[in-house]
Every structure is written in structure tokens, then in C-alpha cells.
Amino acid sequence: MGIGNVFDTNLIDELAQLRELYPSLRQEVSDGLIILSGKISFCLLDSSTGKNPITDRYSVEITISANFPGTIPTVKEIDGKIGRSYEHISQNGFLCLGIPSELNLILKKYATIGGFIENILKPNLFAYSFYIRYGFMPWGEHPAGRNGIYLRYAELFHTLDVDTIVALLSILVEGNYRGNLQCPCGRKKTLNECHGKAIYSLWQLPWNYIVSDYYALLDFKYDIDTEILIYRKYGII
Distance between CA atoms of 96 and 82, rounded to whole angstroms? Predict the structure, then answer.
């Protein structure tokens, strides 16, 4: 089956452009997936830290589905340069690039493979290089997995209470937003007056991402000591 039978014209055009922008990346098509493999180089800095720019490169394998940017590409670091003890990499080498719902928002703004590489992949690789050099993460540290999902919504809704976060997400999952009803957070305000704006900011996300986050947090509980540590470390409220 030819590539034109699987991928739309825009994606095919992007692949042609990628050959010029990233000549070190080999392109393969297998089972309806685009696989890019090779070296990714960068020279980046985080000006807020006052540190010098970092120049580095990594060997990666990027797997892209035919419905990109609807599905977030996966990235595997293939030379073992990133230690498996690093929180944002799995034991089989796949990078945790961020919370899917947040990555989707970035891809809405930069909806090309090149946009993914420049605005998601390179910053993640830079973060690891920065961490190895200076011992802390640029842009602040956020955990991976369900902990990361929890903190994403704790920051958005300005609450550490998981039950409140789940109740607010359920409004989106069930599609029953009523702005004049009382907000489930317990502040005795209407949704419009309270968390309505935060909920509205999530409407542009695909419904499946919200559902995934909702079920990830449905049975998720922090004990009070852990909540206090999170509050102190991340300054959420």
C-alpha cells in the first residue's frame, strides 16, 4: 500500500519538508505509522534561570500515526543517554512528554510534525540536559503519570482536593454544564461565578482526553501529609 493511500496530502507534504529541515532523521512507513529515527540537536536556554544556553543532541525514534495531530506522537530515546531512573522516561525508553491534554493544546497551535519537534520534543530533551548539568529542572518540576494529571488540574482549579477536581471534570464528561447551578467545590457560588472559566478553558480539548484524565483521577487519593508536601513544593494555591 502506497503512502498516499494511508496519509493525507498535508502529512505527505510535511514529510518532504522534514527531509530538508531534519536531514539526519530517517523516514520509514510501517503498518500505517510514520517512523522517524536519528539525531535531534538543539541549542536552548531558560532565561528565567540565568543559566547559559545548552547545546546537545539525542538519538530518538518518533512514531507518528496517520491521524496526526489528532494523536500525539510517541518518542523513544534509543541510545541510552537518558537514565532509566529519570522520572520522565519509562523503563523501555519512551519519553513522558507531558500531560496528554496539555500536549494536545500545544499541537492545536503548532499542528505540524516540525511543530511537535520544536515545541514539545526539543524542550523535553533540553529539560533533561539542564537537569543533568544543574541538578534541577527548568520551568519547575512536575511529576509524571497520574500525579502529573492531578497537579495539572490542581493548578487549573486552584484546589488540592481530588473529589472537587473529579466533580468539576464530571461536568465536562457528562456534558451537563449549567452556569447558574451551584459549583460543586463548596464555595456556594454558581459555576459562572466560580470555576466556570476554568471548565470553559477545557472545552477545546478532545472529549476522550478529558474522559481519560477523569478516570485516571476517579480513584486517586492523596493522604494529607502528601498534600502538604505538594503544596509546599509546587505552591499551587
Answer: 12
Was domain 3-134 assigned CATH 3.10.110? yes
Delimiting residues of CATH 3.10.110 domain(s) in the chain: 3-134
Find, among 147, 203, 205, 159, the residue nearest to 183 by Cα.
Answer: 159
Cα 59 from Cα 76, distance rounded (Å): 9
Buried/exposed 215-232: b ≥16 CB within 10 Å, e otherwise: ebbeeeebeeeebeebee
More confident residue, 12 or 76: 76
pTM of this structure: 0.71
Q: Per DSSP, which regions of 54-160 are E strands?
A: 54-65, 74-77
> Mean pLDDT throughout 141-159?
79
pLDDT single digits (tens) 36-73? 999 999 999 988 888 999 999 999 999 998 888 888 89
